[in-house]
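Dear colleagues,

As part of the handover before I leave the project, I'm documenting each prediction I ran so the next person doesn't have to rerun anything. This entry is a single chain, and its sequence is reproduced below.
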Amino acid sequence: MLHQRGYHSARILPGMSGSGMYWRVAIAAAADFQTDNGHLELRDWDSAVNYTTGSGREFADSRVDVSTSPDVVADLILSCLPRLFAAEDDPLYAEWYAKLMRLVDEHDSLPIAYADYFDDESGWEIGWGSGIRYPHPPPPPTT
């Protein structure tokens, strides 16, 4: 929903907790990410909207569930990310993300970019342990 609103600089970093019990995702502006030795890393986890399935329905200081509309979730994210601007255009990432979401829907599984003992050389995985891989996100455009 954020990309549809023009917030192409919105990025995600999904993964598994150290125990492997919970899925996590960090959502932040592209400027808050860096690539280190080919691995996508968040510079400052406090600058992101963070969610873990261990938190249940708690997300961005609110409660959400399956009946919460994508527009409401997008508004919650935007309220927590003051450094995210709609003026930044990155159609390559938006297209990459849209294809990722189609694959996530098709397999009814969450994307994984990192986990303990996870080799991300072949890209992200769709569904923990599935072996279904998706390429790494494209780098942000240079200005």
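The first strand starts at residue 10 and ends at 16. The radius of gyration is 15 Å.

All the best with the project,
I.
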